[in-house]
């Protein structure tokens, strides 16, 4: 019985892993697997490719629920990425002859709110740092590192100590949003924060 889930597990994901010869492809494969498992595996359980239609997938998409507790509906960006995942699966099914067309083509995306987050005013900074002092020391230092380097939160969390060059005063980010390594120059303040973080390890 060639269900969609079985095709994903036995054909699509192994095919993508074979092509994951660089970090960008590895990240794409990981993200696709995570989104499929989070949003589509259960709704598609037991269904075969011929059972899929745009209308059926749209009903499933409309019923997608957040995986994090406390949220009533998916954010538009998360919803659209879930649709992108099933569209990629649909393209594969079409290319391998499981379906005559991509059953996910034409799913209705949601308008994303791309407004930038408001920047703190100078008079708000003291209150910000006062509130920050209530958190664990490692978290305080992590936020300070983000402020000194302007790197993305996820990229900083994925960085390793081996990526820090104390001599060259740089941080090399390998797993970045665009898939390309990025060298971040480190200021005196950033170096000081990193040394404090390093001391917490011992």
List keywords for this structure.
202 residues; mainly alpha; three-stranded antiparallel β-sheet; 8 helices; elongated
Structure commentary:
- The protein is mostly helical and 202 residues long.
- It is 50% helix and 5% strand.
- It is built from eight helices and three strands.
- It has helices spanning 4-18, 23-39, 54-62, 76-95, 125-132, 137-149, 153-158, 188-201; strands at residues 164-165, 170-173, 182-185.
- It has a three-stranded antiparallel sheet with strand order 1-2-3.
- The longest helix has 20 residues, at 76-95.
- It is elongated and about 60 Å long.
**Sheet with most strands: strand arrangement:** 1-2-3
Helix fraction? 40-55%
**Biggest sheet, open or closed, and with what strands and sense?**
3 strands, antiparallel
For the residues shown, what is the average pLDDT? 87
Number of contiguous helices: 8
Question: What is this structure's SSE topology?
Answer:
Layout: H1 4-18, H2 23-39, H3 54-62, H4 76-95, H5 125-132, H6 137-149, H7 153-158, E1 164-165, E2 170-173, E3 182-185, H8 188-201
Antiparallel strand pairs: 1-2, 2-3
Helix pairs in contact: 2-4, 6-8
Explain briefly what this protein structure is.
This protein is mainly alpha-helical. The chain has helices spanning about 5-20, 25-40, 55-60, 75-95, 125-130, 135-150, 155-160, 190-200; strands at about 165, 170-175, 180-185. α2 (about 25-40) crosses α4.
């Amino acid at each position: 019985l060639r269900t969609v889930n079985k095709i994903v597990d036995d054909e699509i994901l192994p095919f993508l892993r074979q092509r994951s010869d660089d970090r960008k492809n590895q990240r794409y494969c990981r993200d696709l697997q995570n989104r499929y498992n989070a949003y589509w595996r259960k709704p598609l359980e037991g269904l075969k490719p011929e059972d899929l239609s745009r209308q059926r997938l749209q009903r499933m998409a409309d019923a997608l629920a957040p995986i994090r507790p406390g949220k009533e509906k998916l954010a538009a960006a998360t919803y659209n990425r879930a649709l992108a995942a099933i569209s990629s699966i649909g393209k594969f099914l079409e290319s391998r002859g499981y379906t005559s067309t991509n059953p996910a083509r034409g799913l209705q995306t949601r308008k994303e709110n791309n407004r930038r987050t408001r920047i703190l005013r100078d008079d708000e900074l003291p209150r910000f740092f006062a509130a920050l002092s209530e958190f664990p020391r490692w978290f305080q230092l992590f936020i300070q590192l983000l402020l000194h380097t302007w790197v993305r939160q996820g990229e900083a969390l994925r960085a390793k100590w081996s990526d820090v060059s104390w001599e060259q005063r740089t941080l090399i980010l390998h797993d970045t949003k665009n898939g390309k390594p990025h060298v971040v120059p480190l200021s005196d303040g950033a170096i000081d924060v990193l040394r404090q973080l390093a001391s917490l390890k011992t």
